[in-house]
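Example 3.2
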Amino acid sequence: MRVFFFLVLIIFSFSSVCFGQVQRIVSLAPSVTEAIYYLGAIDKVVGVSNYCKWPEEIKNRTKVGGMINPSYEKILALKPDIVVISKEVTPKEVYQRLIELGLKVHVYAPQSLKDIPDELIKLGRIIGKEKEAVSVGNEFLKNINRIKKSFKGQRALFVIWAEPLTVVGKKSHINEVMNLIGLTNIAESSSINIERVIKMNPEIIFFGVAHKSAYSESLILKLKDTDAVKNGKIYCVSDKIYHLSPRIIDGIVEMTYRISKCTKY
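Structure, written as tokens:
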């Protein structure tokens, strides 16, 4: 039912927006804002969610609230030609309310790395940047194909939150990235206890420091007997890896070359 619902949303988006007339965009997710930037249309963005932090150009744009609880009053005041939401994080109730208010909505809906080029093209058509979207999508695919397996199946853990311990499971796109660069994710789901982590004995631990509560010295202390901690294989990764936009390539590079080592422990 959820898949069908969002298919309807996408169809509605295409049928209700006049191509080339979009000059004022409200983005309700970081992945959307990043995608718009890569399409060369960040100047059209008049409002963003509170969680949109990049690129620098949007720092002074109107903040319209959270991704699941935006301020409809602020959005209406901006008089957008279109509101772009993320299928991944935006509840259908928000979509329905936006429609009820007479706003046009487009759903940006990549579920994996391979979906990004097509979703960029759909978005590009809506905002008058289809040519740019094709080019960006092709370049993204080239970059993905250039990525080498710099690891040899090492057991790895990617921590999203330290307390309660929340990690990257098999269904996450970050798990897809881990496989792409040659890592073996020890976590089946996002929930795992300390005892299980110790038993699985990760050789590498990543902390996604997009969330302030991710990196934890107390967690590292609890995992002191794992190979990762014993050998100092603890690395921090920025929010570049979190969002399904062309910017994720930079996040993959961070993981591949272990650019930011967590050394506070």
